[in-house]
Structures are given as structure tokens and as C-alpha cells.
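Database export, one record per block. Field names are fixed; values are copied verbatim from the stored entry.
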Amino acid sequence: MTRTDPFLPAVDRAAFAVALADRLRLRGVPVGLTATRDFVAALAASPPVTRTALYWAARVTLVRDQPHLARFDEVFDTVFGEAVPAVDPHARRVGRTGSSPRGDGTRTTPPGAPGDPVEGSGLPWVTLPPVVSAATHDDAYALTVPERLPTDVAGAVGTPFEQLGEREAELLGRWLERTLGRWPTRRSRRYAVRPGGHRVAIRETVARARRTGWEPVRLVRTGPVDRPRRVVVLCDVSRSMQAQAVAYLHLMRALTLTARAEVFAFGTSLTRLTTVLAHRSAETAFEEAAERVVDRFGGTRIASCLETLLASHHGGTLRGAVVLIASDGWDGDPPERLAAAMARLGRRAHTVVWLNPRAGAPGFAPRTTTMAAALPHVDLLLPADTFAALLRVPGEIAHLAGRGAERSGSGAKGRGSV
């Protein structure tokens, strides 16, 4: 056999090691949890390609005393005497007949023998795929694998927000918290020991020289520490965004918990929700957010809310931050006022990203006057009509930051101070 033809293909190493250790303990060989863990590590580090290699991997890790070698050899010969590892003893999932799932009649142990796989004490040679429906055999194929259906979460990822139920939104919100990608980083003023650093750490180098007679044989170098960029989220909670409000609240809460983001909701006024959405319970957080936002599902005044944020003491959080604006672009303020507020925001922030749920529609174009006025001051316009689209946002922002955050649109401008 070669490395490409393993002795135990597709084996579940943990279950295999536990089952073999259990058989050894039944025969009087003391096998502890540490020895079982060592056996699993040995199988992972060097998968056995022959029966001899498997024997020595098990003997070295599971047997600690010489008097137990005879019993170990007896158990090993009983299990691997015929060396037919292509049978799955967990075939009892499809019945308790004791026959092979391949239909060739091959068995690892005689029927009725101690440790019969049918009785649940055999060794799991092969891990079968999870069965989600009854498998039907076809004459054209020797074995038909059941269809593997997606989970509830995976099936709802691409569903539009307005078609999601309360349970699906909750599941996807938890999934969003676990799978949210990392955000762009910035260079801080702090330095830390780093092998490829460009600065020599004098104190650490002198301390290490004490071991070599005060001769600095090896220099200790330091480099700057990168920190995640600050994230500020502004979410539209007007009537036109009612279908997307719950999903965007899940995004805001995930960013609050993972990236320590500053989050705000706006309609006709601006409301800070950072401390509310940081609650451990998502249900409690959303209930308190609903009580705090008094103007939800009403009108929209984006320009006024941006001016309020820029003039408040929270406006300092925008400096050098990644700003996410989640809105469909409908605004009751004049476009000129929105353009002026977006210009100030763009000069203060590092990256401005606009999440528009309408942008995912085929043939979308920002034809409204407010979106046309804001677009020259936006780095990136992204669709955000599904959770799958939201999960692509961190990667798009990281890619944009790597390219130097070039401005999109004809009104591209340079950076300045406000």
C-alpha cells in the first residue's frame, strides 16, 4: 500500500481510538484518557498505511507495561485478524441485520461474538455521511448515497429579508456573530517584539545579553502593533426600511460584540444604541432598542442626523473609522444638505460604505436625487438585501482598504480635516 491508499480510509479517529481503548479495558489492559488522546494524535500525525503501522501506533501509545502486551496482541488479532477495514460497523443505522452496507456479506467479527459491531461495540472503520432521507438503490450504481439537504441556516442565507420569519432571523443573527470576518487594521503607536521588526529593542537586547557575558549576540527587534479600525454603523429605521430593520439590527449587534462598534439608528432623529445592543441577550437588546427608538417606521432625515452626529461628542469616533450607512437613500432633506454632510463625513472617516437593500435588484442605478448627491462621497456601494450579502461586506471593505481606499464616482476627492 502507498500513502494514497490508507489502511483505514475516512476513519473517525476519535471514535476509533475510544472503541479500541474500550475493548482493551474489557480485556484487562488499563488504558486511560491520556493514552487514548496520544493514539488519536498519532493517527493524525502519521495515518497508518499498513496493518503493521497501525499495530505499532496503537502499541506504543496504549500499552504502558510489558505484562499487558500479550492481552493487547490478543485484542488486536481479534479485531484485525482478517484485515478487512472497508466495512462500517455503524451500519446498524440502517438496520440490525449484521450485513455489510456494501452488500458483500463481509463482517469484521463473527456473528454473536463479543464486541459484535451490530451490538454497538465495534470499531468505526468508516464514517458514513449523515442520512437525511431514505436511500434507494439503482441498478446503474452499486451504492446510492442519500441526498444531503442544507440546514435551516444555510437554506435561509440567500432569502430576502422581507421573507424571513422570526426564527430564521434569530438563527441567522447568531450565525452572523460567529462568522463575521475581520475588519481592516490600522497602525498604532505601540511597538511589540517582532522577529521582522525594523527597530532594535534596547532594553530587551541588553537583558538577553546577560546570558552571553554582556555581548549582544542576538538583537531583539520590535515592530508596530496593528489594531482593528473603529467601526461606526448608521442604520435607517424609517418606514421604507421596515422589512430590513430586524436584519440590520442583527448586523449592528454582531459588530458591537465582535468589533466594539459604535451603532446609531436614525429616522427623523439620531439615537445611539451601542450600550443597548451590547446586552448578552439578543431578545432583551432588541426590546430595549425598540423602546429607545421613538421615531422608527416614520420619516427619514439623513442629512439632519449626520449633522447631529458630526456636531456631537460622538463625532470624534468617526475620525479614521470605517463608517457603514445602511439605508435605501430616501431622504426628506434637500440633496444639497445631504451632499454637504456626506462631504464632512468623508473627510473625517477613513472609509465610507453605503449598504443599500435596493442595490441587489437587477439593473439597479442610484437615480434618486439623494443617492446621486451622496454617491461621490462614498467609497463603496454594496447590496444588502440578504444575509449572504452582509457577510461579503467585511471582505469588500478589507479589499478596499488594501487598495488605498480610492474614491468611487466622478466626485472623488482627497482627505482633509474637519
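Remark 1: The radius of gyration is 31 Å.
Remark 2: Residues 173 and 250 are 5 Å apart (CA to CA).
End of record.
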